[in-house]
Amino acid sequence: KQHGYKSLVVDMALNEVIPAAPIYGITVSSPDVSIVIDILKQLKSLHPDAHFVAGGPHAIVMPDDLLQRGFDQVVASEGERAILDIMRGNRDKIITREPVDNLDSVPFPDREHNIASKYKWMMNGLLTANYTSSRGCPYSCAFCCKTVNFGTKARFRSAQNVINEITELKENYGYQAVMDYADEVLLDLKRDTAIFKACAALGIPYRILTRANLLTEEAIHVLQDTGCYELFIGVESGSERILRNI
Questions:
Q1: Is the confidence at residue 87, as pLDDT, over 70?
Q2: pLDDT at residue 151 is higher than 80
Q3: 119 phi, psi to nearest 5 deg
Q4: CA angle 129, 131, 137 (to 5 degrees)
């Protein structure tokens, strides 16, 4: 949209009608492949001249599989730079682009025309929105697919950039609470403290995801003092031996 292209997100779970378009992009996770291929076949029968692009976890891990199943093009990386090149005419069968280092350069989600606005998600009775303050995770859990987890290098949005989005969520859209979907909140406690203090000043309670080893006494006090409503920790096993192995 920033570069002058029109886009529309259609949520089939809401029985929305898929309009005619020159390019269709479908996100694919591995458990959903068969459903996605059914959707692809239906769309191709209706719009045989359109260009069909796959993205998402399965596209990153197994791009050739989706080409063989009927997609014209597969994005096997983060999507922002790739989709812009596709709109400009790139038709490489498999397209990959370097990750975005400066996450502040990525615009906020276009929530006025986003499917998120059609859902009502509540936290303790408050209308809640989500955002993501970083990408990537430096840890190496065996059960995690790093290729779809934005890589092993943590990349952070600046505190002010995140604060601007949270402020917009409250003032422009009426959200009353937020959740950060970053993989490892508290990796940069100084930055996160600034964000949490801004939430407190705005009267916005929040949820986060984190790891147990990042919950220092200092971090816990910050969370308590700034209105953290809930935090999620992956407790993978009660056995220290299994934890070390994975």
A1: yes
A2: no
A3: -115, 150
A4: 145
